[in-house]
Design a protein that fits this description.
Order of helices and strands: HEEEEH
Structural class: alpha+beta
Radius of gyration: 20 Å
Shape: rod-shaped
Number of helices: 2
Distance between the termini: 59 Å
Strand content: 15-25%
Largest sheet: 4 strands, antiparallel
Mean pLDDT: 92
Low-confidence stretches: none
């Protein structure tokens, strides 16, 4: 019993860290994966670096984005979920 009370603060810290840091990151990563897999040709997107464009081709892990200056091939993970969602609401 004495050992349990000695480790209780560490256990409590781990639980707090899990619920306030680890779990939200896991949920965010899951929603980003769902967003990436839901992309379709014709979607208007914004990349994490700020490039605006429209999806013209899709592959397993890459996407071809048509911009005003031409077509760019990039990773799906380079597309910003938040900025693209805000663009879609406009």
């Amino acid at each position: 019993m004495e050992q349990l009370t000695q480790f209780a603060p560490f256990i409590l810290m781990f639980v707090v860290i899990y619920f306030f840091m680890i779990r939200p990151q896991q949920k965010r990563a899951k929603s980003e994966k769902e967003f990436e897999s839901a992309l379709k040709v014709g979607d208007k997107i914004i990349t994490k670096s700020g490039l605006h464009g429209k999806v013209s081709e899709l592959a397993d892990t890459t996407v071809v984005v048509e911009t005003m200056s031409g077509k760019l091939k990039m990773e799906r993970s380079a597309i910003s979920m938040e900025m693209s969602a805000a663009l879609a609401k406009k």
